[in-house]
Write a structure and sequence with these properties.
Length: about 150
């Protein structure tokens, strides 16, 4: 189960580049339900996500590089490229700051995952977070792969 809140970012914190960064490339084989392939640095995954906004089922399965490259040719819409900075936050939470590249630049989104709905509902974002877009769905990566932000 994935429980997360998502926010637009206009100005990231000054020191964000000092945190661990993943280079991510992902594409969608289907957007309803969501079936995604992802290259994250040198690891590869096939992911299924159920419908939902803040709370969704999510299953990740490992892929080989060969399988990823084969499926990559079968994706619909745009291939998404982004840098993900993992920024530690209070109460052992982690902010995942996504800085999109290519056609989606200069879009920036921050996601925070929680262990319960109550924890997500009580979350107080840092001042540098912008609009809460958790409940719009327009900023799901599956939607961004098909539409302009």
């Amino acid at each position: 189960m994935e429980i997360e809140r998502k926010y637009l970012i206009t100005t990231p914190p000054e020191n964000y580049t000092s945190y661990p960064c993943l280079q991510i490339e992902q594409g969608y084989l289907c957007t309803n339900p969501v079936v995604r392939i992802r290259k994250q640095d040198n690891s590869y995954y096939l992911t299924y996500k159920s419908k939902g906004l803040m709370i969704r089922e999510e299953y990740n399965l490992p892929l080989t590089e060969e399988a990823y490259l084969h499926l990559r040719q079968k994706t619909d819409g745009r291939l998404i490229s982004k840098q993900r900075y993992r920024i530690p936050f209070q109460d052992s939470l982690t902010i995942e700051l996504d800085i999109f590249q290519g056609e989606l630049a200069p879009l920036m989104l921050a996601e925070v995952e929680f262990s319960s709905k109550e924890e997500a509902d009580a979350f107080q974002p840092p001042k540098w977070f912008g609009e809460d877009v958790t409940f719009t769905g327009a900023y799901h990566n599956s939607v961004l792969s098909l539409n302009e932000p």
